[in-house]
Backbone:
């Protein structure tokens, strides 16, 4: 789909398995524009009962040297839970997040 915002592609998921009691339609839309990549997940409940639906999108990046990678923009005081540390809660101290070992936050 060509749009003013860029070029978009819509991926439609197959119907839910019969074991799942709810009917829904799921579309994943990827839009590429001149300076950004945007992804959207559209979930439509096609049944009569409400249900909770969660989706997680993970990105995986190939890098030459993980020790040179850091993430900026995480504000001091942000609370997070780390699976690497037995699901304990932490408050971020501020500054770049540096990858020095296993990381889950």
Residues:
């Amino acid at each position: 789909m060509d749009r003013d915002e860029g070029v978009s592609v819509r991926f439609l998921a197959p119907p839910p398995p019969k074991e799942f009691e709810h009917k829904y339609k799921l579309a994943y839309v990827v839009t590429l524009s001149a300076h950004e990549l945007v992804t959207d997940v559209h979930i439509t409940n096609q049944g009569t009962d409400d249900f909770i639906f969660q989706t997680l999108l993970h990105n995986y990046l190939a890098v030459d040297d993980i020790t040179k990678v850091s993430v900026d923009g995480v504000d001091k005081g942000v609370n997070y839970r780390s699976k690497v540390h037995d699901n304990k809660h932490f408050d971020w101290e501020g500054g770049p997040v540096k990858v020095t070992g296993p990381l889950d936050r």
Remarks:
- The two ends are 34 Å apart (CA to CA).
- The chain is about 0% helix and 35% strand.
- The mean pLDDT is 88.
- The longest strand covers residues 24-32.
